[in-house]
Amino acid sequence: EEEEEEEEEEGSGVRVTPALLKATTGEFSLESILLLRLRGRGIAHLGCLADCSNLEWLDLSGNAIAGLAPLAALRALAVLNLAANRVASVEPLRGCRSLRQLNLAGNRLRSLRQLRCLQGLRHLESLRLRDPRGGLANPLCAAPAYRAALAAMLPGLKAIDGQRVAGRGSELFRLCRELDAALDGEDAPAAAVPAEPPQPWVRAGFWEARPARRSAVLEEATRQLGQALRECRELGRRADDSIAQAQRALGRRQHGDFGF
User: Fold this and answer.
1) Element housing 257 (H / E)
2) What are the b/e assignments for 191-227, b being 16+ CB within 10 Å?
3) Would the pLDDT of 63 be above 50?
4) Long-range contacts of range 47-53, CB-CB < 8 Å, 24 or more positions apart?
5) Is 66 exposed, middle or buried (0-12, 13-18, 19+ CB in 10 A)?
6) Residue 130 contacts residue 141 (beta carbons within 8 Å)
7) What would the CATH number be for the domain defined by 14-168?
8) Stretch 102-131: mean pLDDT, rounded?
9) Which of 30, 63, 78, 193 could cross-link 43 (Cys pair, CB 3.0–4.6 Å)?
10) Which UniProt keywords are given for this protein, alphabetically ordered (predicted)?
């Protein structure tokens, strides 16, 4: 039933085509596209998106997307926003090996079992299934303990729905809950647990400068800037020559006038 529903929805909306992508990005080659924003375009079918093999950042929020099959080919994709769509299965995202941030708020995911395919994404750090500010959620968010279950299923996550799940931040959250429980008259822990020494809330090397990441867009922009500078220097040289010639000609003319 879900497959039939996806086919009906995909057939009634906008399809991603090479012409659409080139008009949006200004790129002549789909492989050159690194960043793509297609928010709120009425898109129902991802079409040729698989041809954007070097895509790293993709925003598809606010569309009518149900099927994600073309995304399976995007090995370099690191950030994906699918908020406010009609996604009921994320199985194709298994192929997005570089994925770090994923926003699925406001879709049709009904069970955590549908997210098991994300367990192989070793770089996934942030997952959003609910966005209170935008009034977006998934049916599975109705379960009161879905965040804890999700954290257990995907232990590499550092943030769920925008909230930290590891490090000092989560410890502070736990202490606040225990304090609230004590003030409300609930039972306190039976035995006091010795306080652990404070730990840094970021991993070692977090503040160290990272090597610059190569980017085809940056390299092309640098090349074009260098060419423009060379052209400017050449034009300046020609202008100086023209001015010098004009000054010499003017000097000869003035000298001739003095002779009359």
Assistant:
1) helix 216-259
2) eeeeeeeeeeeeeeeeeeeeeeeeeeeeeeeeeeeee
3) yes
4) 47/15, 47/16, 47/17, 48/16, 48/17, 48/18, 48/21, 49/16, 49/21, 49/74, 50/74, 51/18, 52/21
5) buried
6) yes
7) 3.80.10.10
8) 95
9) 63
10) Leucine-rich repeat, Repeat
Please state the rounded mean pLDDT for residues 137-143. 94
Can you give the pLDDT at residue 170? 52
Q: How far apart are CA 70 and CA 175, in angstroms?
A: 44
Alpha carbons 112 and 153: distance in angstroms, whole number:
9
Distances 161 to 117, 133, 193, 245 between C-alpha atoms, Å: 19, 11, 30, 70
Question: Domain segments of the chain: what residues?
Answer: 14-168, 215-255
Nearest residue to 50 via CA among 24, 67, 69 = 69
In the chain, the amino acid numbered 95 is: G
Contact 121, 127 (CB under 8 A): no
pTM of the model: 0.62
